[in-house]
Amino acid sequence: MRLNGLVGGTLGGRLVRWLACLSLGVLGCLCLGVYVSVKSNIEAQQASRLDKSAAAIVHLFEKTQRHQQPGALAHDLEDLLRVNRDLHLKLLDERGDALFISSPDAWPAEGRTYTFNFSAEPRRKDYVAAVLVLDTAPDQAILDRLALILWIAALIGSAAIALGGYFIVFLGLAPVRALAEQTRNLAIRSLDGRLETEGIPAELQVLVDQFNALLDRLEKAYQQLEGFNADVAHELRTPLANIIASSELALRGKERDECLRDCIGSNLEEMRRLSGIVDDMLFLSLADRGAKARRAPVQSLAGMCAEVADYYEAVLTESGLQWTVEGDGAGCFDSALLKRALSNLLNNAARHAERGSTVAIRIAQEAGGQIRLSVANRGEPIHPGSLPHIFNRFFRVDASRSQGSQNHGLGLAIVSAIARMHDGEPFAKSENGETEIGVRLRP
Ligand SMILES: Nc1ncnc2c1ncn2[C@@H]1O[C@H](COP(=O)(O)OP(=O)(O)OP(=O)(O)O)[C@@H](O)[C@H]1O
Ligand SMILES: [Mg+2]
Fold first, then answer.
1. CATH code for the domain defined by 292-441
2. Are 427 and 437 in contact (CB under 8 A)?
3. Predicted confidence band at 237 (pLDDT cuts at 50, 70, 90)?
4. pTM, to two decimals
């Protein structure tokens, strides 16, 4: 059977084809059952008639033998066979030659044969055996007609079931057609449209919910993308404007070499900042595309953290801060990425910590086998409303973006990306005057 024909096409067509095949199979089996049962009944009747007729013939033989009535046998046999016209009889002698044939001209070509011997005593002269044949042609004709009727009934029945099934499927699929129509209309409207959930069958409810959830995510991603574009433009505009303005100024005036050098120096600084933003954005897009950390065994995370903190010693001391490393851990990590994440966290802590306080780098083993690496500092807490957004790109708690700002709001987005690249996630809490920001990593 070619399954392609059964499974291709529309859902309705597919169901109807399967229904037609199933009903044809079931009805075919039923009809076959009826046919076989009728046939076996007819055969049982034929066997019983042959048995009874053979017994009657034996009885006739015994009777004529007992009463010594030689002419009576032929007469009685004729009577018997006249009543049963479909029965034919042959009497055979010892050599197997036929001594008596009931109807030589109408001897049936096909039939059910029953052969029996006469008992030795008392036996009627030369008759040794008898062949009784029942003409089965009429019964066979009835069976053939029955088979034809049953086949036609099965075909018409399955066609009727398929047709009924088609209408049922057509009605049943009405909600699917309505959904398709709704989806078509959605495509024309903006991203804020959603599929109606009222009156939807339970089977489709999950699909509709998933689809609506997908649209939610899409809309959010689209909005983020729009905001991201605006942020990128904003971040690039200021340094570019600075470069253009200072270059124009330098070209217009009759500056001395020294002034020109100053101009080029400040332009270079701006361009380095631009290059830093572009590098950060490239790194984030790499992480978005699913790049994974290149892991290698790290024996002591505490050692690695101390290395980074040492590097930041000057910055921390300048802010009047001390630092400590609490706890330790080991595992396979991308140490370059972890150092980058820690640098960003320490950089933030140095900017936001209270003067004279201690910045704590914490390493802890979590219950699920994850490693928690965080930086905590005392200082102005982050507003609870801002906390969920601090890992977003270009997000800064202080929304006023000063012209000469060195900070672009990409540091924590990179921390979050590094956590994802280690199959982990970032976290942040800010309560009781302490802000702790870090990552959970799968070693
Ligand atoms: N330890 C902290 N204490 C208080 N606020 C913080 C702390 N760390 C981060 N923040 C807030 O979260 C915002 C986002 O931080 P993020 O590091 O992403 O950006 P940034 O530091 O402003 O810029 P960049 O890191 O790109 O130089 C910051 O603007 C800051 O307001
Ligand atoms: Mg930062």
1. 3.30.565.10
2. yes
3. confident
4. 0.62
